[in-house]
């Protein structure tokens, strides 16, 4: 496994860049991961989506289905892709510190 450094935090990541220890996630880690996904500035809209993903994951242990994500956040799918060009699974879930999703996020 490779290592990813965000400030003074060093995290183990898989081959796709997902952190392996979600409990070590911080907002500064999210900001650093966002840059790897081509998102240089996390706006309040980004944070709304990232926080929703974190909360859902911490409550249920999985990432939400994309329909649920859109319904609960009020974002349309195209808006999610505008914020995270690599998509809700690869981009948003990675930035939120979730493990790599296995289903259709």
Question: Could you walk me through the main structural features you see in this protein, from its secondary elements to its overall organization?
Answer:
- The protein has 105 residues and is mainly alpha-helical.
- It contains five helices and two strands, in the order E-E-H-H-H-H-H.
- The protein has helices spanning 27-36, 44-60, 66-73, 77-83, 87-95; strands spanning 2-6, 9-13.
- The chain has a two-stranded antiparallel ribbon with strand order 1-2.
- A hairpin with a 2-residue loop joins strand 1 (2-6) and strand 2.
- Helix 1 runs antiparallel to helix 5 (87-95).
- The longest helix is centred in the middle third of the chain and has 17 residues, at 44-60.
- The two termini are 24 Å apart.
Question: How large, in whole angstroms, is the Cα Rg?
Answer: 13 Å
**Approximately how much beta-strand content do the residues carry?**
5-15%
Q: Per the principal axes of the C-alpha atoms, what is the gross shape?
A: globular
> What string gives the helices and strands in order?
EEHHHHH
Structural class: mainly alpha
Unreliable runs, pLDDT <50, ≥5 residues? none
Biggest β-sheet, characterized? 2 strands, antiparallel
Count of distinct strands = 2
Arrangement of strands in the largest sheet:
1-2
Number of helices: 5
């Amino acid at each position: 496994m490779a290592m990813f450094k965000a400030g003074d935090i060093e995290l183990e990541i898989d081959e796709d860049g997902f952190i392996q220890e979600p409990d070590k996630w911080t907002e500064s880690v999210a900001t650093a991961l966002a840059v790897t996904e081509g998102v240089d500035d996390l706006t309040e809209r980004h944070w709304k989506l990232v926080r929703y993903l974190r909360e859902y994951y911490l409550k249920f242990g999985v990432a939400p289905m994309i329909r649920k994500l859109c319904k609960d956040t009020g974002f349309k799918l195209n808006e999610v892709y505008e914020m995270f060009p690599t998509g809700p699974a690869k981009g948003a879930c990675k930035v939120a510190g979730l493990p790599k999703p296995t289903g259709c996020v």
